[in-house]
Amino acid sequence: MWTFEHTERTTATADQIWTLYADPARWPEWDEGLSRVTLDGPFAVGTTGRIKPSGGPTFSYYLEEVSPERSFTDVTKLPLCRLRFSHLITQTPTGNDVTQRVQFAGPLGPLFAKLMGASMTNDMPATMRRMLRVAESVAMSA
């Protein structure tokens, strides 16, 4: 299994971060790798949606784990592979640490990791910083 994880610290509250996470249609606002994301119901375990990477085909995904204002995991089924994105908010004395982890698992996991892993590794820190800037600006205007 291939795994990459990155953590950023923010002054945004868990509520402001969660508001952005729980609205997948907004994810492309800060994730340049996404063109469109939909969700076919509430932001809850088992809910499915569609995700279209920039320049790629549309895939189905589902919410595997959801703990409001703490964590969630979304899973995209690829041929003989599961692409799993985990998101964790951890309170600190000065704000919150936000961790994102991406994993490719399954028989073709190594192939998909080779095809997409480097760009995810390179893009994740900047994508997270963009999202947290949005969350922090919401916090300041609230």
Produce the secondary structure layout.
Layout: E1 2-10, H1 14-21, E2 34-39, E3 48-53, E4 59-67, E5 71-78, E6 81-92, E7 95-105, H2 109-141
What does this structure look like?
The chain is an alpha+beta fold. 29% of the residues lie in helices and 43% in strands. It is built from two helices and seven strands. It has helices at residues 14-21, 109-141, and strands at 2-10, 34-39, 48-53, 59-67, 71-78, 81-92, 95-105. Strand 5 (71-78) and strand 6 form a beta hairpin. The N and C termini lie far apart (41 Å).
List keywords for this structure.
142 residues, 7-stranded antiparallel β-sheet, 2 helices, 29% helix
The radius of gyration over CA amounts to 15 Å
- Topology order in helix (H) and strand (E) letters: EHEEEEEEH
The counted number of beta strands is: 7
Q: Identify low-pLDDT runs.
A: none
| Total of helices | 2
Q: Give the spatial strand order of the biggest sheet.
A: 1-7-6-5-4-3-2
Can you give the mean pLDDT? Answer: 92
Portion in strands? 35-45%
Q: Helix share of residues? A: 25-40%
Shape, principal axes of CA atoms: globular
Structural class label? alpha+beta
Report the biggest beta sheet as strand number plus sense, adding barrel if it closes: 7 strands, antiparallel
- The termini sit apart by 41 Å
At a glance:
The protein has 2 helices and 7 strands. The chain has helices at residues 14-21, 109-141; strands spanning 2-10, 34-39, 48-53, 59-67, 71-78, 81-92, 95-105. The longest helix has 33 residues, at 109-141.
